[in-house]
Amino acid sequence: MAEVSILASSDCAAETAKEVVAVRGLAKRFGQRPAIVDVSLDLQPAEVLGFVGPNGAGKTTTLRILAGLLRADAGEGHVLGHDIMSGGPVGRLVGYMPQKLALYGDLSVAENLRFRADVYELPHPKRAVAAAIEDFDLGPFRGQRASSLSGGWARRLLLAAALIHRPTLVLLDEPTAGLDAESRQDVWRRIAGLAARGDSVVINTHDLAEAEQCGRVALFSRGCVLALGDPHALAETAPFSVVVIGGGDVHRAARLLDAMDGVMATYVHGQRLRVLMRPDALARVRARAEAAGLQAEDTPKRLEDAAFVLVKESLPGRGEA
């Protein structure tokens, strides 16, 4: 398994001075349902950290705890020097963009931004609103109701509202969900700009190709962080091999290889088949493919592959990941 960076129990307070976020063993339940059971991670200044993993793995709950919107039931840690278990004023120090559009639909773009500026008690709210409108190209929509904006412009307004007080820690929950390619790139340009000026960003995303742009990723599963590290290194060190199969009917190839011992998954990509397997199955897969007149080629591992393998191997009855 890829190396997991975990803080020792005595390290959280010691790391406060240099870590933007340092938490260990966070747990949270909603009634009888555990949302997170063991979340340990850190975030460095000017770093972009991606939260990845399946639905219900605990990513959004963790973001909300870091934002000061939820109190963890157990664990320890600090966000921007504040003890998250004591309920300190973390919320005013971070910029949080939720997945759902948390805007006042009957208010205009400018009014929504002014409301957010007043919430943060900015000394010059009119100036802050004007700067946000200019920075996010919202001028043509200044007087338009938020409820009438398209999905892309509504998310742009939500991001502008999250950043209006110029926080040094920005938490983004699925900021590119439902956006077109140009809008997605605009979001990532802004994320890169935040990091370049020294701010730290945590982004929750289901797009594993997108997550590869992060400096590090935290892979969540069943309320725990399975792995934390560079996305490319995590993919390379995960315990699996991968080949692409071509030169024939990919659906026939999938039927041929799916049932083999050691094959973990197959994916049809256009005219080729991507095969994930345990390393000791590589020679057998190659031999069977070649015997069927197919071509097996090496291909780089991807974060998406590694996430699938590590999550699958962490499930009960699968042994240690």
Q: How are the SSEs ordered, and which strands pair?
A:
Layout: H1 11-15, E1 21-30, E2 33-43, E3 48-52, H2 59-66, E4 74-79, E5 82-83, E6 94-97, H3 109-119, H4 125-135, H5 151-163, E7 169-173, H6 181-196, E8 200-204, H7 208-211, E9 216-221, E10 224-229, H8 231-237, E11 241-246, H9 250-258, E12 263-269, E13 272-277, H10 282-291, E14 295-298, H11 303-314
Parallel strand pairs: 3-8, 3-9, 6-7, 7-8
Antiparallel strand pairs: 1-2, 1-4, 4-5, 9-10, 11-13, 11-14, 12-13
Helix pairs in contact: 3-4, 3-5, 8-11
Account of the protein in words:
Mean pLDDT is 89; it is low at 1-16. A 6-stranded mixed sheet has the order 6-7-8-3-9-10, with helices on both faces. Strands 2-1-4-5 form a 4-stranded antiparallel sheet. The protein is globular. Helices cover 33% and strands 26% of the residues. The chain has 321 residues and is α/β, with parallel strands linked by helices. α3 packs across α4, α3 packs parallel to α5 and α8 packs across α11 (303-314). It is built from 11 helices and 14 strands. 42% of the residues are buried. The protein has helices spanning 11-15, 59-66, 109-119, 125-135, 151-163, 181-196, 208-211, 231-237, 250-258, 282-291, 303-314, and strands at 21-30, 33-43, 48-52, 74-79, 82-83, 94-97, 169-173, 200-204, 216-221, 224-229, 241-246, 263-269, 272-277, 295-298. The N and C termini lie close together (6 Å).
